Amino acid sequence: MRHMQAHLDRCYHFIFYFTTERHSGRDLIKYFKMALMNLPVVGPVLVSESLVAMATLCLVYLLLRLMRTKIPEGLQRLPGPKPIPIIGNVLEVGRNPHLSLTAMSVRYGPVFQIQIGMRPVVVLSGSNTVRQALIKQGEEFAGRPDLYSFHFINDGKSLAFSSDQAGVWRARRKLALCALRCFSTIEASSSEYSCVLEEHITKEAEYLVTQLSTAMEASGSFDPFRHIVVSVANVICGMCFGRRYSHDDEELLSLVNLSDEFGRVVGSGNPADFIPFLRFLPSCTMKKFMAINDRFNNFVQKIVTEHYSTYDKNNIRDITDSLIDHCEDRKLDENSNDQVSDEKIVGIVNDLFGAGFDTISTALSWSVVYLVAYPEVQEKLHQELRKNVGMDRSPRISDKPNLPFLEAFIMEIFRHSSFLPFTIPHCTTKDTSLNGFFIPKDTCVFVNQWQVNHDPTTWKEPSTFSPERFLDADGMGFNKLEAEKVLVFGLGKRRCIGETIGRTEFFLFLAILLQKMRFHKVPGHLLDMTPEYGLTMKHKRCQLRASLRKREQD
Ligand code: HEM
């Protein structure tokens, strides 16, 4: 048995070696001899069978070599670890791809190739390389790969995840950007607020403070993510659907709490996306993932149907109405280009809602955990608010320039947690090259944001949490140049369209929470800050405490 195993191992090695490396004729002879060494081991009766096996291997080898991508002159083949047949480098990538791929970038450089299953994936690291690919060669790296799991998101019609043709994606992205800009800047119902976005966020953040106080009175501690996610979801629900939900609404709660599971499957490196036969094996994770997407789609579809039945051209209430309006206008326009279906247009709201609550609630929940882990930073932030905003009114968006330490804290949360460790996977739209390496069309590309944010050539002591790194030399102002080095919203053509809303919401929620509350540990509870890998990395669910700040200094 052991002899047979060794024989098989050598055969594998033979195919594998010749399909992954450049070889001379001498290598070929050496390997052929090595494979022939097996013949006496398996016995004379099997010699003819072994010869047939060897001939088959040679044929497979020749076929694979013929199928190998030809590298254009002047360019090099991508470096990277050797893949194992069928599974590729899945074992080396492991459960924390942001860490393993960062380690590999030290060995292979800022552009290298791994293989997940049968599929080659190019991994980009290093700020210069990422900028070169996503900005200077933006068009060539703007595609999305056609991954199995992406087919279930928004019924395969997602703006962010589907591999739509460039024209369709561009038209939808433009519509989504317009709708977001328009509905976040319209006038608020009260002159107290600069715009409707500020009004939504302030009201939800103030309500969150009441909810946390109530939870403290009722049970003496609370799960921060459970409450934050509903408040954040309400802001985007207000803009997309013109409604908000109670913190005890079972339907919304069960939906928003599923985002962890969603992120785990969609995070870069999900084996079922890269090893085709895994799709046909029973998988609890994929079953759950499909169920989550069904629930999410049904939730949004119900609201969209209600909007269609109450739609009034003269009263556009929210983003859903404005997208329906766009479709209606198009029907009246004889010259309109109908390449994007109504379903795909109204379906944009599904992406905005999903991206709008998961990212910001993850960022805010991490912040509260960091505040508890670094109480001296929490105190310094509160004192800055007390001094520059006071305790008589809630902070506003316009207070931002007077709160440099809060801005620095936010940047350090983005950098240190890098809770979006990779962008959504990209894909090349044509044959291209980067740093002298050839990358064929339709190659899946992972952009390692975590590596850029922890690169020791950019950051001093990258693993230390220190908001001060984003302050000017005199410690008084926010250092914008330093902040621009942090990569969290992606770059270039696929850069996040919710960045302005995301930054505004994160800032205002945090400012209001910090002004009104002090967060603490539950005595005796350990704070585990190890992230759980996914598209957005979450902290482990935990119990925290909070107390209301007094108007006068304690
Ligand atoms: C702190 C908050 C947020 C962070 C850190 C964040 C980060 C990101 C990242 C890294 C990407 C992928 C970029 C790429 O693939 O290269 C992305 C894409 C996207 N984000 Fe955000 N995001 C945030 C908030 C939002 C919000 C509030 C919305 C909408 C209301 C939104 C909507 C989108 C959409 C639609 C895409 C897909 C764009 C495309 O594929 O063309 N995001 N975001």
From TrEMBL:
Signal peptide: none annotated. InterPro entries: Cyt_P450, Cyt_P450_CS, Cyt_P450_E_grp-I, Cyt_P450_E_grp-I_CYP1, Cyt_P450_sf. GO terms for biological process: hormone biosynthetic process; progesterone metabolic process. Its EC number is 1.14.14.1. Its cofactor is heme. It catalyses: an organic molecule + reduced [NADPH--hemoprotein reductase] + O2 = an alcohol + oxidized [NADPH--hemoprotein reductase] + H2O + H(+). One of its GO terms (molecular function) is iron ion binding. The keyword Repeat does not apply. GO terms for cellular component: endoplasmic reticulum membrane. It is a peripheral membrane protein. The chain crosses the membrane at residues 41-64. Keywords: Endoplasmic reticulum, Heme, Iron, Membrane, Metal-binding, Microsome, Monooxygenase, Oxidoreductase, Transmembrane, Transmembrane helix. Pfam families: p450. Belongs to the cytochrome P450 family. This is Cytochrome P450 1A. It comes from Aldrovandia affinis.
